[in-house]
Amino acid sequence: MRDGHVQIEAIPAFSDNYIWLLTVAGSRDCAVVDPGDAQPVLERLRARDLHLRYILLTHHHADHTGGVGPLLQAYDATVFGPDDPRIGTAHTICRQDDVVDLPELGLTLRVLEVPAHTRSHIAYYGDNVLFPGDTLFSIGCGRFFEGTPADMQTSLDKLSKLPGATRIYCAHEYTQSNCAFALAVEPGNAALRKRAGEVDALRAAGKTTLPSTLGDELAANPFLRTRERSVVEAAREIDPRTAPGTATMAVIRAWKDRF
């Protein structure tokens, strides 16, 4: 995704969701990612005189899919999503390494299967932009509602192999609370302390903390650092037998759930 080509902006929904709107200068055509609520999307599209061509879904949860029906009543959009009947809307099924082509936006995205939060969760990646839904958050990761620590470790390992400059547009504004937890895990992490300060300033100004970059996340997000000695040692304070990787993932996610 070339700078100055596709513009990505947040449409806030509910208490902390982001619906991502993709537009191109000089065109009315657009796409949205994970529209859990139709009303704020419709208001933005009508205010900007935009035409919805594509809807991209990462998983079946209602706060990501609940707006699809009303949007399809207003626009003849093509819907992409994972192979999961719980989505409840006819859509083009996307699996690992499938290509999602959005020609009106000049954008091609690759599908990555990243289960754990849900068993069928997918992410979309193209030209150093990632829409990971609820698998990866800035300084955090999703709860394991339908998967295991091993699933999340595998999914985050897959995302970790993307270029460090990848810009991450996750689906919730959780960064400030995630930083508070991460500092409990790695209080001596200078990159994390820097990120936490930036996040506090952004939130105080009423601004989003996204996108972050994968490089910054690798330096500060404990769920991407489960093999780092400092994170493993923090997990061993809870269970001395904890091994790096999946076992550390299990311990720190359970810790986060109680935090």
Q: What is the strand and helix layout of this fold?
A:
Layout: E1 6-13, E2 17-24, E3 29-33, H1 38-48, E4 51-56, H2 62-65, H3 68-74, E5 78-81, E6 92-93, E7 99-102, E8 107-113, E9 122-126, E10 129-131, E11 136-137, E12 140-141, H4 149-160, E13 167-168, H5 175-185, H6 190-204, E14 212-213, H7 214-220, H8 229-236, H9 246-258
Parallel strand pairs: 3-4, 4-5, 5-6, 10-13
Antiparallel strand pairs: 1-2, 2-3, 7-8, 8-9, 9-10, 11-12, 13-14
Helix pairs in contact: 4-9, 5-6
Summarize the structure.
The chain has helices spanning 38-48, 62-65, 68-74, 149-160, 175-185, 190-204, 214-220, 229-236, 246-258; strands spanning 6-13, 17-24, 29-33, 51-56, 78-81, 92-93, 99-102, 107-113, 122-126, 129-131, 136-137, 140-141, 167-168, 212-213. It is α/β, with parallel strands linked by helices and 259 residues long.
